[in-house]
Amino acid sequence: MNHYDKLQQKLDQHPVGAPASKYFREILKYLFQPEELDIALSLEFSLEPVEDIVSRIGLEEEEVSQKLEVMADRGVVLAKTVGEKTYYALLPNYPGLFEYPIMKGMEKEKQQELSRLWHIYYMESMGERLAEADPPWNRIFPAEEAINEEYEILPYEVASEMMEQTRTIALAECPCRITGGQCESPLDVCLSFDGAAQFLAERGMARLINREEARNVLKRAEEAGLVHTGSNNAGKLLFICNCCPCCCHFLMLHTHLRYREALATSSYEAELDVSSCTGCGICAEERCPTGALSLDGDMAVLDRENCIGCGLCVTTCSGEALKLVKREDHRHPPDSVRDLVQNIVVNRKKRNE
Is the full-model pTM beyond 0.85? Predict the structure, then answer.
């Protein structure tokens, strides 16, 4: 077994997973140089100082530090500096090895080939693994203009409210649309927070912004018909993505791979008043990302089972025939990312027993 296969196996130990594939092996060859593999294999998914890493591989600390810095600058390992000491960790596939190198940027030919490999790997293997998570890794936030104030609005249900809990915000270009290239939607709409934001900004993969700028990103994304998604927890978020149905990996679980349970819906769902529908078709043809709305003659038809509660249809309905209502069966998300991961691991173990 070569070192790239060993690295795949190690990455597959992370709850996100990294199923074996000849395409993923080729991806790893693009991301990691052969001389970096021993160091990559010595890393854990939790941050550690260089001296702990060196103790496991028998190389000089200076050499290990230099190579780790090079890898961190490329976005293939995580780094965090506290005082005068820097800590490093292995990144999972999401968020990490897929997004960060693309955010950093690379030669056009290399990016095109890496994009091709990621797409095949996602469609054949990785998407199915992501879809197995229970509860889902990501959830939908509704467009804020669509939220009806007659219902109690909980902080975790609103993207801008979630951002209020964060200290640091960074903005990057969407790696899914860069690699997918299937639409003209805005690229500069990827938001990350706190530790991830600091890392991405320090390494030239994103830029720091303030809360007002971040709120404007959300507004701009809604106007462009992009769906707010984020990690499926009620506490501090790792990120907020603004997703299109044609390129974005987590939304494609629903739109392309047809895993309808692979994304946690928002706390809301669309409700259609047929008597007010003007038959303009904007909701079905331009706004609904999942095909939950269609036209039957000159009248909109709603498939509520397929609605993810993004609210994009509501914000452009000239006849006010659509509104968001609270779901009766909505599940409260885990409190923290740690709780989310633990729930996924426990439920996977139960399923495999």
Answer: yes
Q: Are strands 85-90 and 207-209 parallel, antiparallel or unpaired?
A: unpaired
* Cβ(267)–Cβ(312) below 8 Å: no
Q: Residue with structure tokens 């303009």? A: 280
Which residues are CB-neighbours of 83 under 8 A, at least 6 positions away? none
Domain residue limits, the chain: 3-127, 133-327
For the stretch 75-108, pLDDT in tens is 999 999 998 899 999 999 999 999 999 999 999 9
Scanning 92-151, the segments in alpha helix (DSSP H) are 99-104, 108-121, 127-131
- 194 HSE (CA, 13 A, CB side): 11
CA distances for 90 relative to 3, 8, 328, angstroms: 15, 12, 40
Burial of 129 (0-12, 13-18, 19+ CB in 10 A): middle
Instruction: Match 């939607």 to its residue by tokens.
Output: 185
Please, what CATH class does the domain formed by 3-127 belong to? mainly alpha
